[in-house]
What we know:
39% helix; Aspartate Aminotransferase, domain 2
Amino acid sequence: xxxxxxxxxxxxxxxxxxxxxxxxxxxxxxxxxxxxxxxxxxxxxxxxxxxxxxxxxxxxxxxxxxxxxxxxxxxxxxxxxxxxxxxxxxxxxxxxxxxxxxxxxxxxxxxxxxxxxxxxxxxxxxxxxxxxxxxxxxxxxxxxxxxxxxxxxxxxxxxxxxxxxxxxxxxxxxxxxxxxxxxxxxxxxxxxxxxxxxxxxxxxxxxxxxxxxxxxxxxxxxxxxxxxxxxxxxxxxxxxxxxxxxxxxxxxxxxxxxxxxxxxxxxxxxxxxxxxxxxxxxxxxxxxxxxxxxxxxxxxxxxxxxxxxxxxxxxxxxxxxxxxxxxxxxxxxxxxxxxxxxxxxxxxxxxxxxxxxxxxxxxxxxxxxxxxxxxxxxxxxxxxx
Length: 385
Ligand SMILES: Cc1ncc(COP(=O)(O)O)c(C=O)c1O
């Protein structure tokens, strides 16, 4: 089951085929939702073998659904294939993936170097939760490689960053940072949520562990939470052990929802990236706009890096500042009618997020609607400021 017959095929084929096949008992083409908590065996010997194998994370050793479930396992195989990783594990949300990735690699007294532009809840994990358990953190600007080198201490274990940061869309030079990590035997953990494995595969660039809020692009329809962790089999077996102990297991229904959604990840992202590029160009042409952040624009500080590392597009996240202050931002956002004002991102529906804390930044998560309709909608909102 875990032999990926499709591993040498293209992303689109792997998104559909890897980890799945005709169900051996029913011949169902789609992976069933195995809504079972436990699994029954005929003999003590068979049961004992499963007990031992399940604790060794042997594929297909089904003991209890906190530990393994066939629907979840199919998703894990598919994600490993898409990430080009030896192994993957999934969790009920992105924060659980981050927690498991960190707790399985950091102990009391360890030190962790963290990027300063990261998701606000991840930041509070590093600033509050981990230090309260005796794990030291230093928050630095990871764009400046020297500041990473200068932050390394004898007890440093982990470098943590977002491949494309939330909210300023700064790109990390993963290849160069992974060299620094390897020189000092540090573990490089990359949150690749804003890009997805279709646009960037951090493991190929030298990252040790990749995590995602799969809630965003992987699920893509705003109807399920999901977390993903990928890396070497050894690291993922340890992550699974932590997940089993911490109880961060996903429901089989959400695994199934994710299996269904990820099959169209590339189709959705092709449209989202092309819509986002046109919207970023439109925004940059508007007199009301002060600055647009989008890696596909020549004006983006790291456009050359974006061209080098991003496959298939520059992402669907566009952030921008208007020239006016908070009142103008609120007026603009309130007059946009297609995208709802809301948090989250990566969905087929375009979402708009005013970010007061970030100096009145507006964040658009561009969806799959018709791009002319979206641009006309934004135009009308500009005309009403
Ligand atoms: C970059 C990033 N990482 C992690 C998370 C957390 O994911 P979840 O909401 O699935 O727990 C988010 C949520 O917005 C995010 O933007």
